[in-house]
């Protein structure tokens, strides 16, 4: 993925998509790293008895893919001056393919640079919205 050309940035600029297949192995690794061993993520028999009707990925794992997209678009600017505000809509499940996309909706000049406002969307292979929200990144501040 190539970062967006900051000199050509304008409202409507599409951000580079991130596409991930949710694998149970990745969910298991995330559980280890985060310490979140909730059986909804790990135990198929338990998860079948929940409204989700099966295991689901950690929301923060999916959120990491949104941050990956922002990092791909804005590189170090995202890592040092990015903010993400999202709402979780439907869970992502092992076997799902999620696509994270975004676009620039507003540029605001500040005293030392530019604030870039973006819409962020994560959808599954059926077109269902998994995460929706917005992000702000400071460039040159």
Task: Walk me through the structure.
By secondary structure, the protein is α+β, with helices and mostly antiparallel strands. It has a single domain, classed as Hotdog Thioesterase (Thiol Ester Dehydrase, Chain A). Helices cover 30% and strands 33% of the residues. It has five helices and five strands; from the N terminus they run βαααααββββ. The protein has a five-stranded antiparallel β-sheet with strand order 1-3-4-5-2. Strand 4 (113-123) and strand 5 (129-139) form a beta hairpin. The longest helix has 16 residues, at 59-74. The radius of gyration is 17 Å and the shape is elongated. The protein starts with 17 loop residues before the first strand and ends with a strand. The mean pLDDT is 94.
Any chance you could write out the topology, listing elements then pairs?
Elements (H helix, E strand, L loop, with lengths): L17 E4 L2 H11 L4 H4 L1 H5 L10 H16 L1 H6 E7 L8 E14 L2 E11 L5 E11 L2
Antiparallel strand pairs: 1-3, 2-5, 3-4, 4-5
């Amino acid at each position: 993925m190539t970062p967006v050309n900051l000199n050509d940035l304008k409202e409507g600029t599409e951000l580079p998509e991130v596409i991930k297949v949710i694998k149970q192995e990745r969910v298991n690794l995330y559980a280890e790293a985060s310490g979140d061993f909730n059986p909804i993520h790990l135990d198929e028999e338990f998860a079948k008895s929940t409204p989700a009707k099966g295991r689901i990925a950690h929301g923060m794992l999916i959120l990491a893919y949104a941050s990956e997209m922002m990092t791909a678009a804005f590189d170090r600017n995202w890592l040092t001056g990015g903010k993400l505000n999202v709402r979780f809509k439907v869970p992502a499940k092992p076997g799902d393919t999620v696509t994270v996309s975004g676009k620039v909706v507003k540029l605001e000049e500040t005293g030392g640079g530019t604030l870039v406002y973006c819409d962020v969307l994560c959808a599954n292979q059926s077109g269902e919205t998994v995460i929706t929200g917005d992000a702000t990144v400071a460039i040159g501040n």
